[in-house]
Amino acid sequence: MAGALTMTACAKDSGDNSASGDDGGSAGECVTAQAPPPVEASSDEREAATDVDASDLKVALAFDVGGRGDASFNDAAAAGVDQAEEDMGVGDTTESTAAGTESEDAKQQRLTQMADKGYDPIIAVGFAYADALKAVAPEFPDTQFAIVDDDSVDEPNVTPLVFAEEQGSFLAGVAAVYKSQNCHVGFVGGVDTPLIKKFEAGFVQGAEAVSDNVTVEVDYLTPAGDISGFNDPGKGNVVGKAQLNKGADVLYHAAGASGKGVFEAAAAGDALAIGVDSDQYEQKTVADVKDVIMTSMLKRVDVAVYDYIRALAEDDLDSLPERFDLSVDGVGYSTSGGQVDDIAEVLNGYKKQIVDGEIEVSATP
Predict the structure, then answer these.
(1) Structure pTM?
(2) Which of 15, 120, 126, 353 is the most interior residue, by most CB within 10 Å?
(3) Half-sphere exposure of 225 (CA within 13 A, CB side)
């Protein structure tokens, strides 16, 4: 995530400085909190499970809208399966993607067809599969299921893969303030749901933890129930431009494939952006605007999926963490492009305070 960097934190306590977004204060003026004690990043290198045999597993991925190629959490899930194939020799894989307006019956049918074909485990990528899984899992008690971003399915053959998105988003909020020239930042959520509220909550708390002066814009592309907000780059562009017009100069999105539109707005407006889920600076689908991506809040769906497959192959599901948080590098931030190298010690200092319990990040705004 954040290689072992020893750059000196640039922020100092600015005391009674009163710069605001309207006043066009620089980043140094915006930061009003004393930086935490410097901490070197711990290595996030993980030992590949090359000694684990998963050749008996047939893995199915039921994607949410956007599917493989969304440059976000669907791609992250796919990366976890791809790596498991390479390291552990997974026997067979298949995948299918949800449509933006499909019914619950369609989701149930997708999971049922995968189970009927003998796929085991079946990984449902996204909370939208919760109700479908509640109906299908009991019908296939000998098939293992996992679901990303939901822990409401109380069945013995269902494993939740959930994350502390608010913790990683807190670091995104810190980074946004340190890089903002206007002391004015923005959050763009895809769909107004409790899950995406966790991203908002952490981002706002992180921004306000380091600045008494920062202004934070918050907008959602669609209301709860309309999941098109995760796959509408055009709307992401419009909302991103609106926030820039209000004075924001760093935009953080948690909007799936719609995030490409946010990046494009930032590029056109000479602003910066923060990606989500995957290291979006490295994603081919947003390569034309990658220079505006100063960092990404890493939600390691790839790690969770990979570890889940490994645990199944070793018949040890109890080895999985209850929640993938900062303490197990289940969330974090990326350093591709080098734009946050100069504040790495600051970010790592806040990470340590969260892991040590000195800072408690709220999961609700």
Answers:
(1) 0.84
(2) 126
(3) 1
| Separation of alpha carbons 329 and 116, rounded Å | 35
In the chain, the number of structural domains is 2
Q: What is the mean pLDDT of the chain?
A: 90
Q: DSSP string covering 241-293, please?
A: HHHHHTT--EEEEE-GGGHHHHHHHHHHTT-EEEEEES-GGG-GGGGGGGGGE
In angstroms, the Cα distances linking 341 to 74, 89, 291 are 28, 36, 15
Q: Are residues 207 and 282 in the same domain?
A: yes
145 and 103 housed in the same domain: yes
Question: Which amino acid is located at 187 in the chain?
Answer: F
Residue type, 301: V
Which tokens sit at 129? 């599969």
Do residues 131 and 106 touch, judged by C-beta distance below 8 A? no
Tokens 């369609």 — which residue?
106
- Lowest-pLDDT range, 14-18, 64-68, 87-91, 147-151? 14-18
**Higher-confidence position of 46 and 143:** 143
Q: Is omega for the bond preceding 121 within 30 degrees of 0, making it cis? A: yes
Q: How far is it, in rounded angstroms, from Cα 177 to Cα 160?
A: 33
For residue 5, is pLDDT > 70? Answer: no
Residue 151 has pLDDT above 80, yes or no: yes
Q: Same domain for 278 and 213? A: yes
CA distance to 283, 304, 331, 342, 345, per residue, from 2 (Å): 18, 19, 12, 11, 10
Q: How far apart are CA 167 and CA 363, in angstroms?
A: 8
Q: Are 187 and 217 in contact (CB under 8 A)?
A: yes
Residues 117, 245: one domain?
A: no
Give the H/E segment covering residue 332.
Answer: strand 331-333
| Higher local confidence (pLDDT), 77 or 28 | 77
